[in-house]
From TrEMBL:
InterPro entries named among the record's database cross-references: NAD/diacylglycerol_kinase_sf (IPR016064)
Organism, scientific name: Kineosporia corallincola
Name of the molecule in the record: NAD kinase
SUPFAM superfamilies: NAD kinase/diacylglycerol kinase-like (SSF111331)
Entry superkingdom: Bacteria
Length: 290
């Protein structure tokens, strides 16, 4: 007997939650903000908007469905089922955080604050999401297939990201490695997707003359940049940007301790030691964005 769909609601802790964790009570949090010329009202409004969106979506989950709720920091510990319909309620970056842990399950992005977030990946209101849920389960809702980037270590470990992967020094100091056999010392390497071309990669491309054209949001190619490559008698700067198409890879050999993380989640990362090789390429799994 087939299992009923499961609605998995994903969210981040609000600014108010973080303030209360730090200061203990609402009064102390309010005093802290007021002493710096701010008030708690705007923080409270954002908190309320998030929780109202979560409440509406949860109340609208069809009867008979299974349910789960998870905070962003707990995503690595959640096992997603094939029958899951994932609902990310929050900022656009939350969809990117979810993408690395799913394998084809449809993802609906819900914007709790329309007009505040860009809405590139969180495209729906809570009420629109409620109407979408049965259509997603029946396969009648349209979903975009978004390419992801994947890094694979020579020991078999791997990591995926929707926007971009960063390879560099754990302390954000000079990273030393070989890229296509050229020894380099830099602030790290950034490899982005078409989805990520409106973010960090776009900032790098704007600063460079002759930068490759950024991939479109539905393209399968990747773009990569070396950040602040340093010329010296033993390190070069001839390979600092380029495109990767399906079937191509970017090989990097560590000449020091390096880390790899995706979409800003530094806690979930790979570690490279001297001599290890990592290859970056278009990932096989893709995000199904409703």
């Amino acid at each position: 007997m087939a299992l009923a769909p499961r609605a998995v609601l994903v969210h981040r802790r609000s600014e108010l939650d973080l303030l209360l964790d730090r200061h203990g009570t609402r009064g102390q949090a309010e005093f802290f903000l007021r002493s710096r010329g701010r008030d708690l009202a705007s923080v409270q409004r954002r908190h309320d908007a998030l929780h109202e969106a979560l409440r509406l979506v949860e109340a609208g989950v069809p009867g008979g469905w299974r349910r789960a709720s998870v905070e962003r920091s707990d995503l690595p510990r959640l096992r997603f089922d094939p029958e899951d319909v994932v609902v990310a309620v929050g900022q656009d970056g939350l969809v990117a955080n979810v993408a690395k842990y799913v394998s084809g399950q449809p993802v609906i992005g819900v914007d709790p604050e329309p007009g505040v977030n860009p809405g590139v990946l969180v495209r729906h209101s809570a009420s629109e999401c409620v109407a979408l849920l049965p259509r997603v389960a029946s396969g009648t809702a349209r979903a975009e297939s978004r390419a992801m980037v994947e890094a694979v270590l020579d020991d078999g470990q791997s990591l995926r990201a929707l926007n971009e992967l960063y390879i560099g020094d754990a302390g954000h100091q000079s990273a030393r490695y070989r890229l296509h056999e050229e020894r380099q010392s830099s602030s790290g390497i950034l490899i982005g997707t078409g989805t990520g071309s409106t973010g960090w990669c776009a900032s790098l491309a704007r600063e460079r003359a002759g930068a490759p054209e950024l991939p479109g949001r539905l393209d399968d190619s990747l773009i990569w940049f070396v950040r602040e490559a340093w010329p010296s008698p033993v390190t070069g700067t001839t390979r600092t940007q380029g495109l990767l198409r399906p079937g191509e890879s970017l090989p990097v050999v560590a000449e020091g301790d390096l880390v790899v993380f995706g979409d800003g989640l530094e806690a979930d990362r790979l570690h490279l030691t001297w001599g290890q090789q990592i290859e970056v390429r278009v990932a096989g799994p893709r995000l199904a964005l409703v």
